[in-house]
User: Fold this.
Amino acid sequence: MSHPILIAGGGIGGLSAALTLQQIGVECIVFESVRELKPLGVGINLQPNAVRELFDLGLTAEELDRCGVPAKEWALVGLKGQEIYSETRGTYAGYNWPQYAVHRGEFHMALYRRFVELAGANAYRTGHRATGYEKNPDGSVTLVLDGPDGKCRETGALLIGADGIHSAIRAQMRPDQPPIHWGGAVMWRGTSLAKPIRTGSSFIGLGTHAQRMVIYPISHPDPETGLALINWIAEVTYDDPSAHETVGWFRQVGIEDFIHHFEDWTYDWLDVPRLIRGADAAFENPMFDRDPIPTWVDGPVALMGDAAHAMYPTGSNGASQAIIDARTLGAKLIEHGVTPLALNAYDDELCEPVSELILRNRGAGPFGLLNMVNDRCGGIFEDINDVISETERRDFMGKYQAAAGFARDALNAAPPKIAPGAKVEG
Assistant:
């Protein structure tokens, strides 16, 4: 009897991989450390390249609409609400697929329900935390786990490490890796009911590298009140990271603990303190990433998602890249079979360009435009063209889109990563 593929980590990346394996006819088992799944988290963006893959997996626009809302616009604005840069997004920008802003937890649960429906409840095992792996003489791999009843082991044909930024699989693969990198930025996140601004489905950034807000809706407006669930991120960067104590990866905090940074951000077009105080809860975490590594593969073991390439969320493509990882891996398994050759081909295609993306996002990603404006005029201006030309703004964003893998014409012209009905031979 052939061994299944093992997936350590049942988040968005791990479930995207599991659904892809299910689609191409490969048995897999997902091991998730959490004992009971709940729709946790706040808002994330799914770029058109990732939405395309979700549609190819069989998810529908109706299902994504229950998790969030199609994004119409991405905009950077000045403190008076005036335009710095804006562009339409998704189908509004000529892509063949929409971009979605979704509630992370609701989207995660949608993936989980679909996988369990297709593969059965025993294929997704909660309360199992990966602690390491062993490569066996016959080419198989054994995943070592802390389970509900103590240590346990499971042997598979291949192992996919999708166990996040604190990945035990990566730690064993790269014991010499540097510690998690923190550049001094702390984020506070929450969701509040409020009326959407600009297009009604706009992703809005304002501020500078030192202090900024990101605001976008993750639900359709209520027909009676006009209120939508607005995701907001308040961010402050400390000049000397060593002088500020880093905190837990994701912890709930009181709004009064941080709102003083934004108390005077009241404008005729936006009241930031009111928006923040409208949240039921706020969560704090440092903006972490990891230094790139030269390979994500060790024989029959491969990393994906945050385990492979944890990156700053400045480009709104962490979850999208995890989905692309999963689909690329599936395509390589179709080409090379359930073998380490497939993992090597996956690594060859993605590791180097995504490593460059990590560093690009560390350098502020698309929000670098806000820093340029601040450096040139202190953020105070009447006409952005007096500060930075339209050509310079467009060139800056075009380079980022190409690096992130969602340049429109290239994506629209690209064939599917996995052809309809394609299966792994044997």
The domain at 5-43+104-179+291-364 is CATH 3.50.50.60 (FAD/NAD(P)-binding domain). The longest helix spans residues 340-362. The two ends are 12 Å apart (CA to CA).
